[in-house]
Amino acid sequence: MNVTSTNSDYDDALKGIDLLEDYFKSLDMPTSFNDLGIDDELFEEMALSATDGGKKLVLGIKNLSKDDIIEVYKKAYKK
Asked: CA 15, 25, 34, 9: dihedral to nearest 10 degrees?
């Protein structure tokens, strides 16, 4: 991706994400839930499905609850 370092890992990561998103767009690929036609009203249902009705966590580097997952979905939705 050829990201020029800014001496800030956070800023470098954001710049890399922007470049990756630009690349996906150049391929006419969707880059958000909105691009896929997924309405934000579905987030609750999607999070419940991912967490077995809110009873389980999604395990990973950070364990995610239903509410955590909804926040991730909101960030993946661009109007």
From this structure: -10
d(CA 79, CA 73): 13
Q: 41-79, pLDDT tens digit by residue? A: 999 999 999 999 999 999 999 999 999 999 999 988 876
Q: What is the CA radius of gyration of the chain?
A: 15
The pTM assigned to this predicted structure is 0.70
At CA 31, angle to CA 75 and CA 70, rounded to 5? 25
**64 SS3 class:** strand
Instruction: Reduce the DSSP state of residue 63 to 3 states and report it.
Output: coil
E-assigned strands of the chain? none
Contact 31, 25 (CB under 8 A): yes
Cβ-contact 41, 47 below 8 angstroms? no
